[in-house]
Amino acid sequence: MEHPVASKRILISGAGLSGLSFALALTKLLPPSVSPPSITILERDIPSSAAARQGYTLSLAGDNPDSGLVALRDLGLLDQNLTSQHVLGLDGAGCFKIWGADWQEMMSVRAKPVQGIPAGTVRVKRSELRRVLVDAVMDRGVEIRWGVVCAGANTKKRGGGEGGRGSKVEVKVRSAESGVESVEECDLLVVADGANSKIRAELRPEDGLEYAGAIQLVGVGTFPEGVSSPVDKNWGMQLSGGQGLCCFYAPTDEHNLLWALSFLDGDMRMKQSYESQEAMQQILDEARKKGEVFGPRFRQIVDATIDPSTVLCLPAQDRKPFHQDLDTGVVYLGDSNHAVSPFAGYGANLALKDGWDLAKSLVETSSIEDAVRRFDAASFPRAVKTWTTSRGRIRDLHSTGVQFWLFKVFISFVGFLLRILGRS
User: Fold this and answer.
1) pTM to 2 decimal places
2) Burial bucket for residue 11 (CB in 10 Å: 0-12, 13-18, 19+)
């Protein structure tokens, strides 16, 4: 019997972490005896503009089999990613912490890694991680077409019933530069074009993003003399002592510190970037006023934010995962299926594992439909767990009154246990 992906055409919408992970995993896992499929990644950005927007860092876990570092190990890219960039959390240097408004440490977490992984959690530059994946994918002969927008898709009847085994998928594509549109046909469409997926919006309009109730004011402070302790090597949350605010900090390199001040707001703001000094100052002034509880050090960090391109007003948005349709020839990976807000701290891990698991399912099963079923069984529960955890963090980190004090007692107790266990 012919392998289900042998000589097939596979289109991947989006050159993000999940799409790249899938493409690389499939080329590595397919045995040489199988006639390889044609794999093409369609990405709306060009490499330079994509890299410019990805200067921030992200967390990769290595404390369980579903984590991002395990996926990178399986892809053969773990050592390359941990040696090619500014990495926090290796060799005991840095970990996740929670501080009080006065910067007193309340909890420190150093997760225990699974066997063969060097750290339980690390923090890496997204741009570097993506570059390593892009290079690896292209080395495997996968085509990436930059500046191409996937505007929508539909299945085309080709015998065997509507949307059945014999169906093709028609993908509407548009040149980002010229606007010229065309239609391409494939046997499998892997949708990996992010939280605001155009294909999901067309095929599953009911599965849009939900507002999670919090707003983040984000920027990057620049310190020519170097970022100072304790946020030079550590990352984490600062709590406001029950005032309903928190601030996340993470160094992006030796001289730059990402900060994200968050608060609950019943009215969702639209995501907005600030390209002029005047517009940037408006959001920085709001951050200074709201963050007064964090004292002069927070103001110093905000005052050091001088690049408008790093400043954002970001609503926390997410969506619960949905089960895949088994017989449409369309599969959703990463944020296109289960978008998570920054409070999850796990989106990159889900994306990398989604790509690996879909490829593994396709290689090991006898039909695309069965592969999608197996992939869904693996990806759905972990995405539900991450979504639930994220919503709980939003509630607890911005709690006030009795709820805050209960949360404070809880994290103090957990911090005490971690110190006893040598995990802090």
Assistant:
1) 0.93
2) buried
**pLDDT for position 277:** 86
Please give the residue that has the higher pLDDT: either 381 or 154: 381
How many percent of the chain have pLDDT more than 70?
Answer: 95
Angle at the Cα of 235 (from 229 to 239), degrees rounded to 5?
A: 95
Query: Exposed, middle or buried, 180 (CB in 10 Å: 0-12/13-18/19+)?
Result: exposed
For 266, other C-beta atoms within 10 Å of its C-beta total 6
> Which residue has 């619960």 as its token pair?
320
- Predicted pLDDT at 423: 77
Q: Quick one: what percent of the chain has pLDDT higher than 90?
A: 80
Q: Taking CA 59 as the corner, what is the angle to CA 54 and CA 65, rounded to the nearest 5 degrees?
A: 130
Whole-angstrom distance, CA of residue 75 vs CA of residue 219: 33
Residue identified by tokens 């990613």 is 81
Strand order across the beta sheet in which 143-146 lies: 143-146, 38-43, 9-13, 188-191, 330-332
362 touches 368 (CB < 8 A): yes
**Structure-token pair, residue 231:** 């946020």
CA distance 35 to 279: 55
How far does the chain reach from its first CA to its final CA, in angstroms?
Answer: 53
Place of tokens 């968050």: 262
Q: Of 271 and 211, which is predicted with more confidence? A: 211
Interacting residues of 79 by C-beta distance below 8 A, sequence separation 6+:
none
CA-to-CA distance for 393 and 391, rounded, in angstroms?
A: 5
